[in-house]
From TrEMBL:
SMART domains: ETF (SM00893). It comes from Kribbella sancticallisti. Coiled coil: none annotated. The keyword Ribonucleoprotein does not apply. It holds the Pfam family ETF_alpha. Belongs to the ETF alpha-subunit/FixB family. Keywords: Electron transport, FAD, Flavoprotein, Transport. This is Electron transfer flavoprotein subunit alpha/FixB family protein. Residues 4-185 form the Electron transfer flavoprotein alpha/beta-subunit N-terminal domain. The lineage of its organism: Bacteria, Bacillati, Actinomycetota, Actinomycetes, Propionibacteriales. Its cofactor is FAD. Heterodimer of an alpha and a beta subunit. The electron transfer flavoprotein serves as a specific electron acceptor for other dehydrogenases. It transfers the electrons to the main respiratory chain via ETF-ubiquinone oxidoreductase (ETF dehydrogenase).
Length: 313
Protein backbone atom coordinates (compact mmCIF):
# COMPACT_ATOMS: atom_id res chain seq x y z
CA UNK A 1 0.00 0.00 0.00
CA UNK A 2 1.30 3.46 -0.83
CA UNK A 3 2.48 5.74 1.96
CA UNK A 4 0.47 8.83 2.81
CA UNK A 5 2.42 11.56 4.61
CA UNK A 6 0.73 13.39 7.47
CA UNK A 7 2.44 16.50 8.87
CA UNK A 8 1.97 16.34 12.64
CA UNK A 9 0.44 19.45 14.20
CA UNK A 10 1.68 19.69 17.77
CA UNK A 11 2.81 21.95 20.57
CA UNK A 12 5.98 20.59 22.19
CA UNK A 13 4.96 16.95 21.69
CA UNK A 14 1.27 17.46 22.51
CA UNK A 15 -0.47 16.29 19.35
CA UNK A 16 -3.50 18.29 18.24
CA UNK A 17 -6.81 16.61 17.45
CA UNK A 18 -6.51 17.67 13.80
CA UNK A 19 -3.60 15.23 13.42
CA UNK A 20 -5.78 12.34 14.67
CA UNK A 21 -8.29 13.39 12.00
CA UNK A 22 -5.60 13.48 9.29
CA UNK A 23 -4.33 10.03 10.30
CA UNK A 24 -7.89 8.70 10.13
CA UNK A 25 -8.26 10.13 6.62
CA UNK A 26 -4.80 8.87 5.60
CA UNK A 27 -5.85 5.30 6.47
CA UNK A 28 -8.56 5.54 3.79
CA UNK A 29 -5.87 6.38 1.23
CA UNK A 30 -2.95 4.11 2.20
CA UNK A 31 -0.35 3.63 4.96
CA UNK A 32 -0.19 6.71 7.22
CA UNK A 33 3.37 7.93 7.82
CA UNK A 34 3.62 10.82 10.30
CA UNK A 35 6.20 13.56 9.79
CA UNK A 36 7.12 15.15 13.11
CA UNK A 37 9.08 18.42 13.17
CA UNK A 38 10.67 19.64 16.42
CA UNK A 39 11.38 18.30 19.90
CA UNK A 40 9.24 15.89 21.87
CA UNK A 41 8.62 13.11 19.37
CA UNK A 42 8.63 10.49 22.15
CA UNK A 43 5.80 12.36 23.91
CA UNK A 44 3.82 12.36 20.69
CA UNK A 45 4.26 8.65 19.90
CA UNK A 46 1.30 7.28 21.90
CA UNK A 47 -1.14 9.67 20.19
CA UNK A 48 0.32 8.95 16.75
CA UNK A 49 0.21 5.19 17.36
CA UNK A 50 -3.34 5.39 18.67
CA UNK A 51 -4.58 6.70 15.32
CA UNK A 52 -2.67 4.32 13.10
CA UNK A 53 0.64 5.94 12.12
CA UNK A 54 2.76 3.04 10.83
CA UNK A 55 5.97 5.05 11.02
CA UNK A 56 7.07 8.41 12.41
CA UNK A 57 9.72 10.37 10.53
CA UNK A 58 11.32 12.74 13.04
CA UNK A 59 13.00 15.96 11.93
CA UNK A 60 14.76 17.44 14.93
CA UNK A 61 17.08 20.01 13.33
CA UNK A 62 16.56 23.08 15.61
CA UNK A 63 16.70 25.40 12.59
CA UNK A 64 13.32 24.03 11.50
CA UNK A 65 11.69 25.59 14.55
CA UNK A 66 13.81 28.76 14.55
CA UNK A 67 12.53 30.05 11.24
CA UNK A 68 9.08 30.61 9.79
CA UNK A 69 7.64 28.11 7.34
CA UNK A 70 10.12 28.02 4.43
CA UNK A 71 12.55 25.45 5.97
CA UNK A 72 9.64 23.18 6.85
CA UNK A 73 8.48 23.13 3.24
CA UNK A 74 12.01 22.32 2.12
CA UNK A 75 12.26 19.53 4.70
CA UNK A 76 8.96 18.01 3.60
CA UNK A 77 10.14 18.10 0.00
CA UNK A 78 13.18 16.04 1.02
CA UNK A 79 11.03 13.56 2.97
CA UNK A 80 8.67 13.25 -0.01
CA UNK A 81 11.62 12.58 -2.34
CA UNK A 82 12.63 9.63 -0.15
CA UNK A 83 9.20 8.22 0.77
CA UNK A 84 7.47 8.87 -2.59
CA UNK A 85 4.04 9.19 -0.97
CA UNK A 86 0.78 8.94 -2.87
CA UNK A 87 -0.52 12.05 -1.04
CA UNK A 88 0.53 14.59 1.60
CA UNK A 89 -2.01 15.77 4.18
CA UNK A 90 -1.53 18.94 6.24
CA UNK A 91 -3.87 20.74 8.66
CA UNK A 92 -5.61 23.82 7.26
CA UNK A 93 -4.05 26.24 9.73
CA UNK A 94 -2.47 29.47 8.48
CA UNK A 95 0.97 27.86 8.84
CA UNK A 96 -0.21 24.56 7.33
CA UNK A 97 -1.57 26.27 4.25
CA UNK A 98 1.61 28.25 3.71
CA UNK A 99 3.76 25.15 4.07
CA UNK A 100 1.45 23.28 1.66
CA UNK A 101 1.61 26.04 -0.93
CA UNK A 102 5.40 26.23 -0.85
CA UNK A 103 5.69 22.44 -0.90
CA UNK A 104 3.36 22.08 -3.88
CA UNK A 105 5.48 24.55 -5.86
CA UNK A 106 8.66 22.63 -4.98
CA UNK A 107 7.10 19.30 -5.94
CA UNK A 108 5.41 20.78 -9.04
CA UNK A 109 2.23 19.25 -7.67
CA UNK A 110 -1.39 20.25 -7.55
CA UNK A 111 -2.64 21.72 -4.28
CA UNK A 112 -6.09 21.62 -2.69
CA UNK A 113 -6.70 23.70 0.42
CA UNK A 114 -9.45 23.63 3.05
CA UNK A 115 -10.87 20.22 2.18
CA UNK A 116 -13.83 19.32 4.39
CA UNK A 117 -13.63 15.68 3.33
CA UNK A 118 -11.10 13.45 1.55
CA UNK A 119 -12.05 10.06 0.14
CA UNK A 120 -10.24 7.43 -1.88
CA UNK A 121 -8.73 8.84 -5.08
CA UNK A 122 -7.94 11.10 -3.30
CA UNK A 123 -11.11 13.02 -4.08
CA UNK A 124 -11.62 16.08 -1.89
CA UNK A 125 -14.71 18.05 -0.97
CA UNK A 126 -14.50 21.81 -0.45
CA UNK A 127 -17.13 24.30 0.61
CA UNK A 128 -16.65 27.50 -1.45
CA UNK A 129 -18.23 30.94 -2.08
CA UNK A 130 -19.11 31.49 1.58
CA UNK A 131 -20.47 27.95 1.74
CA UNK A 132 -22.90 28.34 -1.16
CA UNK A 133 -21.26 25.64 -3.30
CA UNK A 134 -19.73 22.25 -2.60
CA UNK A 135 -16.92 21.26 -4.94
CA UNK A 136 -15.40 17.83 -5.40
CA UNK A 137 -11.89 17.86 -6.86
CA UNK A 138 -8.94 15.63 -7.65
CA UNK A 139 -5.33 16.62 -8.23
CA UNK A 140 -4.19 15.69 -11.71
CA UNK A 141 -0.47 16.51 -11.55
CA UNK A 142 2.24 15.37 -9.17
CA UNK A 143 1.89 14.20 -5.58
CA UNK A 144 -1.42 15.54 -4.23
CA UNK A 145 -0.82 18.11 -1.49
CA UNK A 146 -4.04 18.61 0.48
CA UNK A 147 -4.82 20.78 3.49
CA UNK A 148 -7.76 19.54 5.53
CA UNK A 149 -9.99 21.62 7.79
CA UNK A 150 -10.44 20.69 11.44
CA UNK A 151 -13.38 18.33 12.09
CA UNK A 152 -13.32 16.93 8.53
CA UNK A 153 -13.27 13.44 10.03
CA UNK A 154 -14.08 11.87 13.36
CA UNK A 155 -10.82 10.44 14.74
CA UNK A 156 -10.99 6.64 14.74
CA UNK A 157 -8.49 4.76 16.84
CA UNK A 158 -6.40 1.99 15.19
CA UNK A 159 -3.64 1.05 17.64
CA UNK A 160 -0.12 0.68 16.12
CA UNK A 161 3.42 0.83 17.52
CA UNK A 162 5.15 3.10 15.04
CA UNK A 163 8.91 3.04 14.70
CA UNK A 164 10.69 6.39 14.78
CA UNK A 165 13.09 7.16 11.95
CA UNK A 166 15.39 10.16 12.38
CA UNK A 167 15.66 12.12 9.14
CA UNK A 168 18.50 14.56 8.45
CA UNK A 169 17.46 17.54 6.41
CA UNK A 170 19.61 20.06 4.67
CA UNK A 171 18.16 23.54 4.78
CA UNK A 172 19.28 26.06 2.18
CA UNK A 173 20.24 29.63 3.08
CA UNK A 174 17.45 30.78 0.78
CA UNK A 175 14.90 29.22 3.15
CA UNK A 176 16.33 30.95 6.21
CA UNK A 177 14.89 34.37 5.53
CA UNK A 178 12.48 34.96 8.42
CA UNK A 179 13.70 34.09 11.89
CA UNK A 180 11.37 33.81 14.89
CA UNK A 181 12.51 36.35 17.49
CA UNK A 182 9.95 35.65 20.21
CA UNK A 183 7.06 33.30 20.72
CA UNK A 184 4.66 32.96 23.61
CA UNK A 185 1.40 31.06 23.90
CA UNK A 186 -1.88 32.91 24.24
CA UNK A 187 -3.14 33.06 27.81
CA UNK A 188 -4.83 29.76 28.54
CA UNK A 189 -8.61 29.94 28.98
CA UNK A 190 -8.99 26.30 30.01
CA UNK A 191 -11.46 25.90 27.14
CA UNK A 192 -10.90 23.84 23.98
CA UNK A 193 -9.31 25.50 20.96
CA UNK A 194 -12.02 27.11 18.81
CA UNK A 195 -11.31 25.28 15.55
CA UNK A 196 -10.95 21.92 17.28
CA UNK A 197 -13.85 22.09 19.71
CA UNK A 198 -16.69 19.58 19.46
CA UNK A 199 -19.08 22.17 20.92
CA UNK A 200 -18.99 25.96 20.45
CA UNK A 201 -21.20 28.56 22.09
CA UNK A 202 -20.97 31.91 20.29
CA UNK A 203 -22.25 35.29 21.31
CA UNK A 204 -23.18 38.25 19.13
CA UNK A 205 -24.43 41.81 19.43
CA UNK A 206 -27.43 40.45 21.33
CA UNK A 207 -25.19 39.85 24.36
CA UNK A 208 -25.01 43.61 24.77
CA UNK A 209 -21.36 43.13 25.68
CA UNK A 210 -21.97 40.71 28.56
CA UNK A 211 -20.37 37.40 27.55
CA UNK A 212 -20.85 36.00 31.07
CA UNK A 213 -23.91 33.86 30.21
CA UNK A 214 -22.22 32.64 26.98
CA UNK A 215 -19.05 31.62 28.84
CA UNK A 216 -20.98 29.99 31.68
CA UNK A 217 -23.05 27.89 29.27
CA UNK A 218 -19.91 26.99 27.29
CA UNK A 219 -18.17 25.87 30.48
CA UNK A 220 -21.14 23.73 31.54
CA UNK A 221 -20.76 21.85 28.24
CA UNK A 222 -16.95 21.83 28.07
CA UNK A 223 -17.28 23.99 24.96
CA UNK A 224 -15.23 26.71 23.27
CA UNK A 225 -16.51 30.29 23.06
CA UNK A 226 -16.91 32.07 19.74
CA UNK A 227 -18.09 35.54 18.76
CA UNK A 228 -19.66 37.34 15.83
CA UNK A 229 -17.82 40.19 14.18
CA UNK A 230 -20.27 42.69 15.64
CA UNK A 231 -19.24 41.53 19.12
CA UNK A 232 -15.54 41.59 18.20
CA UNK A 233 -15.73 45.01 16.51
CA UNK A 234 -17.45 46.34 19.64
CA UNK A 235 -14.41 45.24 21.64
CA UNK A 236 -16.44 42.70 23.67
CA UNK A 237 -14.41 39.65 22.67
CA UNK A 238 -10.95 39.19 21.08
CA UNK A 239 -10.65 38.73 17.33
CA UNK A 240 -9.02 35.31 17.82
CA UNK A 241 -12.52 34.03 18.69
CA UNK A 242 -14.37 35.53 15.71
CA UNK A 243 -16.28 33.02 13.63
CA UNK A 244 -17.01 33.79 10.00
CA UNK A 245 -15.66 34.86 6.66
CA UNK A 246 -13.00 37.10 8.18
CA UNK A 247 -12.60 34.97 11.31
CA UNK A 248 -12.27 31.24 11.95
CA UNK A 249 -14.14 28.54 10.10
CA UNK A 250 -15.51 25.95 12.46
CA UNK A 251 -17.39 22.72 12.03
CA UNK A 252 -18.22 21.37 15.49
CA UNK A 253 -20.75 18.69 16.39
CA UNK A 254 -22.85 21.40 18.07
CA UNK A 255 -22.84 25.17 17.40
CA UNK A 256 -24.93 27.42 19.62
CA UNK A 257 -25.46 30.97 18.31
CA UNK A 258 -26.73 33.33 20.98
CA UNK A 259 -27.83 36.82 19.97
CA UNK A 260 -26.44 36.40 16.45
CA UNK A 261 -28.64 37.39 13.50
CA UNK A 262 -27.12 34.95 10.96
CA UNK A 263 -25.51 37.27 8.40
CA UNK A 264 -24.03 35.45 5.38
CA UNK A 265 -20.50 36.32 6.54
CA UNK A 266 -21.12 34.66 9.90
CA UNK A 267 -22.74 31.62 8.31
CA UNK A 268 -19.69 31.19 6.07
CA UNK A 269 -17.72 30.24 9.15
CA UNK A 270 -20.16 27.88 10.87
CA UNK A 271 -22.77 26.49 8.53
CA UNK A 272 -21.04 23.12 8.16
CA UNK A 273 -21.56 22.51 11.91
CA UNK A 274 -23.34 19.19 12.42
CA UNK A 275 -26.11 20.54 14.70
CA UNK A 276 -26.95 24.24 14.95
CA UNK A 277 -28.96 25.82 17.75
CA UNK A 278 -29.88 29.51 17.88
CA UNK A 279 -31.20 31.66 20.68
CA UNK A 280 -32.61 34.93 19.42
CA UNK A 281 -35.36 37.19 20.66
CA UNK A 282 -36.45 37.98 17.08
CA UNK A 283 -38.33 35.03 15.57
CA UNK A 284 -37.69 36.50 12.08
CA UNK A 285 -33.89 36.44 12.52
CA UNK A 286 -32.24 34.82 9.44
CA UNK A 287 -30.24 32.44 11.66
CA UNK A 288 -33.48 30.46 12.19
CA UNK A 289 -33.37 29.46 8.47
CA UNK A 290 -30.41 27.16 9.06
CA UNK A 291 -30.89 25.87 12.59
CA UNK A 292 -31.78 22.38 13.73
CA UNK A 293 -33.25 23.79 16.95
CA UNK A 294 -34.26 27.38 17.68
CA UNK A 295 -35.23 29.15 20.87
CA UNK A 296 -37.06 32.46 20.56
CA UNK A 297 -36.17 34.33 23.71
CA UNK A 298 -33.80 36.57 25.61
CA UNK A 299 -30.35 34.95 25.82
CA UNK A 300 -29.84 36.51 29.25
CA UNK A 301 -32.69 34.31 30.51
CA UNK A 302 -32.38 31.27 28.25
CA UNK A 303 -28.63 30.68 28.69
CA UNK A 304 -28.57 30.80 32.53
CA UNK A 305 -31.59 28.44 32.63
CA UNK A 306 -29.88 26.05 30.20
CA UNK A 307 -26.63 26.26 32.18
CA UNK A 308 -28.44 25.39 35.38
CA UNK A 309 -30.16 22.48 33.68
CA UNK A 310 -26.91 21.07 32.25
CA UNK A 311 -25.02 21.56 35.52
CA UNK A 312 -27.73 19.66 37.47
CA UNK A 313 -27.27 16.53 35.32
P1 LIG B 1 -26.59 41.69 14.57
O1 LIG B 1 -26.71 41.43 13.11
O2 LIG B 1 -26.83 43.07 15.05
O3 LIG B 1 -27.60 40.69 15.29
C1 LIG B 1 -27.83 40.68 16.67
C2 LIG B 1 -28.96 39.70 16.92
O4 LIG B 1 -29.14 39.55 18.32
C3 LIG B 1 -30.28 40.11 16.33
O5 LIG B 1 -30.80 39.06 15.53
C4 LIG B 1 -31.17 40.35 17.55
O6 LIG B 1 -32.51 39.96 17.34
C5 LIG B 1 -30.52 39.43 18.58
N1 LIG B 1 -30.70 39.87 19.96
C6 LIG B 1 -30.60 41.12 20.47
N2 LIG B 1 -30.76 41.09 21.82
C7 LIG B 1 -30.97 39.80 22.15
C8 LIG B 1 -31.21 39.12 23.39
N3 LIG B 1 -31.22 39.80 24.56
N4 LIG B 1 -31.39 37.78 23.35
C9 LIG B 1 -31.38 37.09 22.19
N5 LIG B 1 -31.16 37.68 20.98
C10 LIG B 1 -30.96 39.02 20.97
N6 LIG B 1 -19.59 38.74 10.73
C11 LIG B 1 -19.18 37.69 11.47
O7 LIG B 1 -19.85 37.29 12.43
N7 LIG B 1 -18.00 37.06 11.14
C12 LIG B 1 -17.23 37.44 10.11
O8 LIG B 1 -16.17 36.84 9.89
C13 LIG B 1 -17.65 38.55 9.32
N8 LIG B 1 -16.93 38.95 8.26
C14 LIG B 1 -17.41 39.97 7.48
C15 LIG B 1 -16.72 40.34 6.33
C16 LIG B 1 -17.21 41.35 5.52
C17 LIG B 1 -16.46 41.69 4.27
C18 LIG B 1 -18.38 42.04 5.89
C19 LIG B 1 -18.92 43.13 5.02
C20 LIG B 1 -19.06 41.69 7.02
C21 LIG B 1 -18.59 40.67 7.85
N9 LIG B 1 -19.26 40.29 9.00
C22 LIG B 1 -18.85 39.20 9.70
C23 LIG B 1 -20.35 41.11 9.57
C24 LIG B 1 -21.75 40.59 9.28
O9 LIG B 1 -22.20 41.10 8.06
C25 LIG B 1 -22.71 41.01 10.40
O10 LIG B 1 -22.68 42.41 10.52
C26 LIG B 1 -22.40 40.41 11.76
O11 LIG B 1 -22.26 39.00 11.64
C27 LIG B 1 -23.54 40.72 12.71
O12 LIG B 1 -23.23 40.23 13.98
P2 LIG B 1 -24.40 39.87 14.98
O13 LIG B 1 -25.25 38.82 14.38
O14 LIG B 1 -23.79 39.63 16.31
O15 LIG B 1 -25.18 41.26 15.11
Amino acid sequence: MANVLVLVDHTGGKVRKTTAELLTIARRLGEPVAVYIGDGVQDALPALGQYGATKVIALTDPELSQYLVAPKAEALQQVAAKVEPSAILISSSAEGKEIAARLAVKLESGLITDAVDVQEGPVTTQSVFAGNYTVKAKITHGTPVITVKPNAATPEAAETSPEVEEFDVSISDAAKTARITDSKPREATGRPELTEAAIIVSGGRGTGGDFGPVEAFADSLGAAVGASRAAVDSGWYPHAYQVGQTGKTVSPQLYVAAGISGAIQHRAGMQTSKTIVAINKDEEAPIFELVDFGVVGDLHKVLPAATEDVTKR
